[in-house]
Amino acid sequence: MEVILLERVEKLGGIGDVVNVKTGFARNYLLPNKKALRANESNRKVFEANRAKIEADNAERRTDAEKAAKGVDGKTVKLIRQASNTGQLYGSVSARDIVEALDGEGAKVTKSQVVLDRPIKNIGVHEVKVALHPEVAVTVKVNVARSPEEADLQAQGVDVLAQMFEEEAAPAAGELAPESPATAETEDAPAEAEAEASEPTETAEDEQ
After folding, report:
1. Chain centroid to CA 4: how far?
2. CA–CA separation, 157 and 177 (whole Å)
3. What is the extent of the structural domain holding 41?
């Protein structure tokens, strides 16, 4: 389906571009969200007649978004969640969770502005894109951990899972460590002495 874009759409084009998209994408996203018009003769005339106003409105929204970006860009939020020893969450972190966490930090964004391809399902520090406007995007960090202490370590750049696995592996490695030659010789000595003691000794009668 051909549509006329009313704003910049990533990977498609900018205001006024006529692009060919999948019918489902147009009907379910572009058209209902007023990001595009069907590219027919009537709509082309309507767009051209209102092009100046559409571009002016877009510029105003972009300016507002650029101002708002200063209070959002680079923000870090902490989310404490239950998780297994492998770091898998018992549940997930959604766009709504991120919006609420940012709101608690004084950064106002909407759920539709949080670009999250799929829910976060493991602990760690995740970078998430927030599109405040089609031409203005910022990045926030979402620190998902099992405790505030763990979140602080992750904020310092510590890989808590790797550290935990190393600590668990250390005792196991000690148990499997090969014996030193000295230890092996010491343990073998009693066995050799016992073997010598059990050997028959020659008597005078045997010599005759």
Report:
1. 35
2. 31
3. 2-67
Distance CA(5)–CA(160), nearest Å, equals: 46
Could you report the per-residue pLDDT of 80-127, keeping only the tens digit for each?
A: 999 999 999 999 999 999 999 999 999 999 999 999 989 999 999 999
> Does 93 lie in the same domain as 151?
yes
Residues 81 and 141 in one domain: yes
Q: Where does residue 6 rank: exposed (0-12), middle (13-18), buried (19+ CB within 10 A)? A: buried
Q: Round to whole Å and give the CA distance between 38 and 46.
A: 11
Query: In Å, what is the CA distance from 49 to each residue of 18, 37, 55, 160?
Result: 16, 14, 12, 59
What confidence category does residue 163 fall into, taking pLDDT thresholds of 50, 70 and 90? confident
Residues 168-188 pLDDT 10s = 665 555 555 555 555 555 555
